[in-house]
Specification:
Oligomer: single chain
Number of helices: 3
Shape: flat
Number of strands: 0
Helix content: 40-55%
Low-confidence stretches: none
Structural class: mainly alpha
Length: about 110
C-alpha cells in the first residue's frame, strides 16, 4: 500500500511539473508592456530562396535503359551474398561479421 501511495504521489508531482511547463510554453501575453517607438523603420526583406528557381530537371529519356534481366540478376546476386553472410554469422557469430560491410554491388 505504501508503494502504491508513493507511486501515486510521484505521478501527481510529475503531472504538476508537466502542467507548469506546458503553461509556461504556451503563454502568449507579456506581463510588462514595452514602449513602442513612434515610427518603425521600413526594412525590405528579400524573398526566401530555399529552392533554386533555375533548377534543371533531367529528361527521362536521357538515361540509358537497363534491361530488366540485368537488374534481376543483380538483385539475385545481392540476395545470395546476404544469405551467405547470414549463414556464416549463424555458424560463427562475431562482432566483426555482424558489423562488417557487404561486398554486394547494390549497397554502396
Amino acid at each position: 500500500m505504501e508503494m502504491f501511495l508513493m507511486g501515486l504521489c510521484l505521478s501527481m508531482l510529475g503531472l504538476a511539473v508537466t502542467a507548469v511547463a506546458f503553461g509556461a510554453a504556451t503563454r502568449t501575453g507579456q506581463s510588462i508592456p514595452e514602449e513602442q517607438p513612434a515610427h518603425e523603420p521600413v526594412v525590405e526583406i528579400a524573398p526566401a530562396r530555399f529552392f533554386a528557381d533555375d533548377a534543371v530537371i533531367p529528361a527521362l529519356g536521357m538515361h540509358p535503359r537497363v534491361p530488366i534481366e540485368a537488374l534481376l540478376l543483380q538483385i539475385d546476386n545481392h540476395v545470395r551474398l546476404e544469405q551467405a553472410a547470414a549463414e556464416s554469422f549463424v555458424a560463427y557469430p562475431t562482432a566483426a561479421l555482424l558489423h562488417g560491410r557487404t561486398i554486394s554491388t547494390l549497397v554502396q
